Amino acid sequence: MNGLRKSLWNAMLILCMFSLFLTQSFANPLSTSVYLLLTGTVNKYGDDPAMGWLDVVAKDGGWAKTRVAFIIPRWWHIPEISPTGIHIYGFTLVNASTVSVQKSAAYIAGNWTGFHIFWNGTSIKSLAQAIKNIAWIKTNGNLSITDAYTVFTISLKGFEPITGTVVHTRIITTEDILEGDLNYDGKVDIRDIAQSAKAYGSLIGEIRYELQADFNFDFFVDIQDIARVCRNFGKSY
Ligand SMILES: [Ca+2]
Ligand SMILES: [Ca+2]
Q1: pTM, to two decimals
Q2: What would the pLDDT profile of 67-103 be if each residue is shown by its tens digit?
Q3: What is the Cα–Cα distance from 30 to 43, expressed in whole angstroms?
Q4: Would you give the DSSP letter of residue 212?
């Protein structure tokens, strides 16, 4: 661990301990609900092979946070279309109209915003530039998770179907869930901080980037994201 990373790590821990101290006495009893926490990998965009992630946190009959981001490295199979570039897509649910979490399937529908950028793949600087110039597109559609939580399809108006495989599912009945539990083990602790620290400073499209760690979905994992892990540090659900 170099000096800078070590100081950063210490700063995060101090911030987390402070958040813990501040929030100790604010327990808020609520009635219980069914929650779904799920991650998946994107395998296809239409007929094209794609690589990426799906991240879902949903409350049955209530709200949902759903994000998907993936790349299409077309040079694999159609070199004449884009010999050196990468297509990057991202979508986030902004307003859920239906959130249904059942025993073996889930369905989430509503309004989404999304983007499609083409990165020429030459440098991180050109990727940062492409992200800066993102034109957000409004759309609507749904995420359908089926077959006992093994596969998913996202159907959005104006786009090809996004399909993939579920990697991890947790369905719990509890009063409330906590933001910042990156590994979905029911507590926000040092492991979650470590996971977000690993992605710290990364940009969407880079190997280290982790969708779950990018809480505000601005395609960077920075101190604002780490602060949101810290907010619930030491708590469990
Ligand atoms: Ca955790
Ligand atoms: Ca972020």
Answers
A1: 0.78
A2: 999 988 755 545 455 556 788 899 999 999 999 999 9
A3: 38
A4: G
Q: What's the 226 CA to ligand 2 centre distance in angstroms? A: 9
CA of 229 to the centre of ligand 1 (A): 10
Interatomic CA distance for residues 130 and 127, integer angstroms: 5
Contacts of 54 (CB under 8 A, 6+ apart): 38, 39, 40, 41, 42, 66, 67, 68, 143, 152, 154, 164, 211
Residue 210 CA to ligand 1 center (angstroms) comes to 15
Sign of CA dihedral 177, 179, 182, 188: negative
Domains of the chain by residue range: 1-22+176-237, 31-175
CATH of 1-22+176-237, one of 1.10.1330.10, 1.20.140.10, 1.10.287.1700, 1.20.1420.30: 1.10.1330.10
| pLDDT tens, residue by residue, 16-25 | 666 655 555 4
